[in-house]
Amino acid sequence: MKTSIESTSSDASELSDYSSTLPENLPTWMKNQKAQSFGLKSLTALYTLILTIVAFIIEISPTWQSDAMHIEYTLFCVLMYSIAIVYFIYLYTVILYPVVFNTILLFLERIHVLSVHSVKRWMRPEPVFTGEGAGTLYLRLGTLLFGTLGSVLWGSEIFLCFFTDARHNIYVVKYIFAFLFTYMQMHFLCCNSKIDLPKNSFIASFGMMHCIAVNLWVWFSLCLAKAVYKSDKKTLKLQKNEEKFKKKNMSEVVAEMVTTTVASYVSSDGDFSASEKQLRSLYKLGSAANFLLTTLVEFSLIAAAVYFIIWKHEGEEKPQEQRKKHVRFDCKSTSVGIFAALVLLIGSFVSISMHYIYNNSDKPRVADEVIGIAETVLFCVTLMAVFAAFIRMRKLQYRLHAHGQVVDEILLIVGLAGEIVYCSTGLDLYLNERLGKVQGTSCLTVVAFVFRIVQVIVQSIFILVASRLRSLTASNIANQPGKQIITFLVVCNINLFIYHTFETIESNFGFPHKMASVYSALLNISSPLVVFYRFHSSACLAEIWKHAYSTKHNHVVHKMEDHHIA
Hints:
This protein has helices at 2-20, 33-60, 70-96, 99-110, 116-122, 137-160, 169-191, 202-249, 252-267, 280-285, 287-312, 335-360, 364-392, 406-435, 444-466, 474-479, 483-505, 517-547, 551-565; strands spanning 397-398, 469-470. By secondary structure, the protein is mostly helical.
């Protein structure tokens, strides 16, 4: 007991000596800037999570989707868009282009409305572009293309509000706001996505996260609209086939009456089973509007990913780099890859024309098999090209940082996940049909989906590795090993982007006309990601093609990395 008391008194004396060396006037966590930044980001992230969940529930809720609630639902859409538009107005007038705002403050100070202290407090500094954002050229070009085509869809909806049956004025406001939101996003992502938002700014952080929620909601709602349109299209096709069967088995008079009745029902308004909330352009423009809707889905995914990167790196201080004003491309060692890929491109368009011919000749099964054979050939050739690129580029050197940005890798993984879900759904449906002993199931489905899923996984690994390779030796600079194959892969992925776009609109290869609602939901959510994966893969491969063999850029980076290691 005596030893214990002595030990306790010794520890107490040591603790007293230690506490005497600690500073007395440290700021509390409420006044710590890092704590404030963490708390602000946590609150805005929680707001985005709640708003996204609520928006998703509203989209799938039978109550909100009923005809009795179409005005309330549209008001919700207008509210989502209007908050985002107000934020972009603030972003452009206060943060990106503060000249007008600062001029107004100086004018108010000159006429003695504001004090000098207030003007200094509210004066906005010049914007700093040190963030990552949509860093690569090809990603910005993609946002420009997809944003333009998406704006065309919203413009068509505005026109259709006044075409034939006029809609409620709230729909006009909704689609005008959707058009403005898409257009403002497109300009921001192309020109100002590298902006470094001010630190601990509630409005900047809140607005950026609200835009993420709006883009996720737009992506989900458009996927559901596409699913409804496909379901209506299949129903209409089945009714037409039934009418053809009745024509062959009934008298001419009765057949004529039935045909006239169905035709008047379908073409009276052009909106087959479309409710008041549905996109009219899907039922008026058909496949063209379906393509525009797909591009808008891709644009929403890109925007949400870029906004997340901007929000994540908000307030981080980085050395500002001078903006590039010129872009140069070294086209040496590319001709063989281009012309070899053009052969596959021509074959793909021939198979698409064959699909239309067989489909119009009432042979849909043969038409789908043509698409399956063409896809299997494309995946096999592209897979072999990826393995060849691995072998050829083994001579290059590894560097610390990738050519692209973090957002490129995030978008690549998102697209890869969509491809895996799409292929897994197709394989599961094939197994389900085989267990049910459905006639007409072909083993071509398994072969195509297996080659496809292997190809996307191997290609994704290759892109992640190759984006960190470079040419530093004299022999690599002279021979440029693998550049022909990279050129071939770029054109092949552009080809597959066109092919998958056609597939999601017209073809049903690997998927039966009638399937459970779970499979239909998985298909309609993953099919836009499939198209997006091919576009983004071609953009990433183009970045590798541009930077891996750039001698000047590689030697500058090599010196910087050697200095960093030292």
